[in-house]
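Per your request, structure below.
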């Protein structure tokens, strides 16, 4: 059983959560040993800035004014003030009034100066007809091993799914995928595998033929209606 350790991280209700940690190591054929601290925690905060400033205390890190913040490969910011300002702006644009963040687990690699964790965000909305929703995000955080200051952050999530949740279309999209797209895809996979010619070249040929067929159908439809 992994040892349990109390953390000085205050929850929203004023109690103090319990974190479970254990050390894990993996070795390659070259006998290079990589040590990892793997733990679960229950850190809860309202707002991104409060959450960031709390979660880094898990492994005794600190924030400076500058950081390289990669927002899901859609933008790169170089100061925490810009990060918090951009997050607040697009939250308002998407009708999100409040974000509640909770961290479920983290992995720490001290030798690499890296920690990454999964967080859940619960989004409350500004208008009653907009659905509230939960979403999961993976965050990678690099830091200077000397000063223990965070130097780089990469936030990764399914942006398509996020916007579907924002507009309450996620269930409709799930039904469409499960009942309209998946059945013919399964038939195609069975037929394709039965040919014995499954390789990148034949796949690309099929994609080209499919696009060509779609274009022809659109052209035919245009001639029919006009």
């Amino acid at each position: 059983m992994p040892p349990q350790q109390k953390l000085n991280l205050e929850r929203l209700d004023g109690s103090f959560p319990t974190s479970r940690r254990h050390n894990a190591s993996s070795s390659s054929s070259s006998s290079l040993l990589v040590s990892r601290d793997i733990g679960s925690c229950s850190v809860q905060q309202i707002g991104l800035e409060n959450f960031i400033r709390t979660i880094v205390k898990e492994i005794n890190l600190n924030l400076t004014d500058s950081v390289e913040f990669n927002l899901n490969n859609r933008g790169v910011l170089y100061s925490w003030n810009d990060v918090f300002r951009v997050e607040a702006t697009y939250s308002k644009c998407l009708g999100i009034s409040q974000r509640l963040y909770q961290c479920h687990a983290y992995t720490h690699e001290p030798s690499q100066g890296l920690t990454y964790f999964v967080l859940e965000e619960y989004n409350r909305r500004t208008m009653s007809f907009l659905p509230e929703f939960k979403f999961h995000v993976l965050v990678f955080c690099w830091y200077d091993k000397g000063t223990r200051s965070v130097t780089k952050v990469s936030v990764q999530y399914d942006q398509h799914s996020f916007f579907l949740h924002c507009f309450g279309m996620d269930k409709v999209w799930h039904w469409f995928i499960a009942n309209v797209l998946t059945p013919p895809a399964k038939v195609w996979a069975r037929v394709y595998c039965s040919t014995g010619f499954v390789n990148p070249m034949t796949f690309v040929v099929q994609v080209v033929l499919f696009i060509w067929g779609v274009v022809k159908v659109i052209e035919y439809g245009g001639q029919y209606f006009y």
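Confidence is low (pLDDT under 50) at residues 1-22, 24-32.

Regards,
D.
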